Amino acid sequence: DSGVTQTPKHLITATGQRVTLRCSPRSGDLSVYWYQQSLDQGLQFLIQYYNGEERAKGNILERFSAQQFPDLHSELNLSSLELGDSALYFCASSASGGVNNEQFFGPGTRLTVL
Amino acid sequence: GQQLNQSPQSMFIQEGEDVSMNCTSSSIFNTWLWYKQDPGEGPVLLIALYKAGELTSNGRLTAQFGITRKDSFLNISASIPSDVGIYFCAGQPSPGQAGTALIFGKGTTLSVSS
After folding, report:
1. Which of A24, B34, B65, B101 could bond to B54 as cystine, CB 3.0-4.6 Å?
2. pLDDT means per 10 residues in chain A (114 residues)?
3. Is the dihedral of CA B63, B50, B70, B86 positive or negative?
């Protein structure tokens, strides 16, 4: 158990809908990262937050957004869903979000868009 | 963008054999991490490497950070059935547009027959 929690475990929805994925980092970790894992693209970085503020963006679509709350939990919002958004979404946390910082991954949310 | 080449893509071995896999990059990384992922689960951190030339062990696992900072390898000695899974290398480049996000290899799928 990494100490990172994610809910829900599974999510099935229809195209055009909007969903919210939730992540709670390990106790004491200030930085949260979101990654998407698909069969063809592998693990891809989406966005990073540190202590409530956006730190960096990766290949995140404009239809996707995220935020980190004062209690440090984070939510990833996916809207206008398309079939191609079906994937595993992982949250990872690290102590400071700086270099030489280990990232610990949650169990993931499997999103299926029908 | 930066890419990691991880090889081999898959391995089929007998229980008790040693395993070696590696990752190479076209650019320098500050940190190399090795993860193991079981089906439907999140990646689990196995070993973290922070200095060029560093050799680190975790039980039967040994990993090294290449001298050029562009490669890393992971060895598993005396494999057992529970070693089955997908092994990912991940590199952390110098902070830039993507902050301190990890770049992942495509993974090595390990199968162990008893």
Report:
1. B65
2. 96 98 96 93 92 92 97 98 97 85 94 98
3. positive
